[in-house]
Every structure is written in C-alpha cells, then in structure tokens.
Amino acid sequence: MIRIAAVGDVHVDKDVLGRFRPALEQLPERADALLVAGDLTRHGTVEEARCFATEFGGLGVPVVCVLGNHDHQSDQQARVTDVLTDSGITVLEGDTTVLELHGHRLGIAGVKGFGGGFAGACASNFGEREMKDFVGTTEVIAQRLQDALLSIQVDALVALTHYAPVPDTLLGEPLEIYPFLGCYQLGRAIDAAPTALALHGHAHHGSERGRTPGGVPVRNVAHPVIKQAYNVYQLLSDEVDLELVAT
Question: What is the pTM assigned to this prediction?
Fold first, then answer.
C-alpha cells in the first residue's frame, strides 16, 4: 500500500506562513509522499515561492508539485521553479518522477494543464488564429501529459494537474466558467495510460470526486474544497480513499 497526501491552491504568501506547517509536520506518520496540484503561490513571485518552500519543504517525505495559473501571474515561473527545485521540491511540467516506496514504484506524471471545456461545450481548433492558438495550447499540454504517463513502467501511476480533466469535480462552479477550469483532453490523456489516480485543483467551488470516461478516479484537492491541509489517498489497495486527515 502507498499513501499519498495531496492538496492544491494553497496560495502561499508571507501571511500564510505557519498555517499549514503543524499538519504538514505529521506527514511522515500519515503518508509516504505529498503531491501539490498547483497554485502554490498567490501571484507567482520569487518571494512567494520562497515562502512556499519554507512552508512545504523539509517534511521528511518527497514533495512533488505542478505549477498553477497563479504561479504564472508574474511571468517568473522559471525562477519560481528554480527556487522550489533548490529546496528539494520536485516540479513537473510534461515530465515524470518515480518514487521507491515500501518496495513499490510510484510514478507521477504532471502538467499544469489548460482550459478548453468538455464534451458538448468545448472550444475547437477552428476559426481565428487566437482560438486556434488557445486550443492548440490545450492539445500540446495534454499530449505532453499522455506521453509522460506512457513513458514509465511502475506499480502505481498518478496524474497530477492543476486544471481539471473532467467536469464531475467542477460541480458547484458556474457552468459558464467550466471552459476556463479544465478540458476533456486531459481526461483523454489520463485514460490512455494505466493511471490509478488523477489529482487536480483550480476549482475552488467544485466537488472532490469524479471519474474519467475510462473510469480513473479523479480527486479535486483544492484547499477550499477539501478544507484541510491535505487529504490522504491510498494506492495498491482495494480502496482509493484512505482517510480524511484533520488539520
């Protein structure tokens, strides 16, 4: 059994320092790794990245994350990534990491993702150059996720994104903004591989649970949704959900 702690949309800045840390320091007793589904910072500044590294680094378990849209706000995402990497935090964008846990190989493939919408109400790669560029970005990112998921052979495979791969976990958000919260291409990429679990954030007013068309469990771990420092999910067992860890 592998236990994965997960959260997203923590939006760390100076005023958040210390808010998550007491619960995070208990992680080695409760989980084998922590996955963070984007929006690590409030405005994507280097200073905020340092705050995130202070709050979420040095936990005694591996920390793996993807960036979110907020982490791109200041156009400093490369420097933000460097700060996190220098702190021992793994940042994924179209690539993978493999963790050796309890004699099992846990593979994590991650991308930020992008918008576009879902079947029956999605943007198409047609018309103005601006629309084709928008959808083209979505398609390229989804293909990177699919390629990453298919590139490794592990005992358990997790897809980590910021944007949602299914509409199920957006329930509670206004329908009008679904195209800006996720896209079906991410779900299709997840279904192309033997993915055991998909984690995302971004939808603060969404719902926790969903499934891809292919049946992969999807969990929205945005902090405003789970309302605690992290949830814990288990893999290589009969149940995906292990427990809801109180903070």
Answer: 0.95
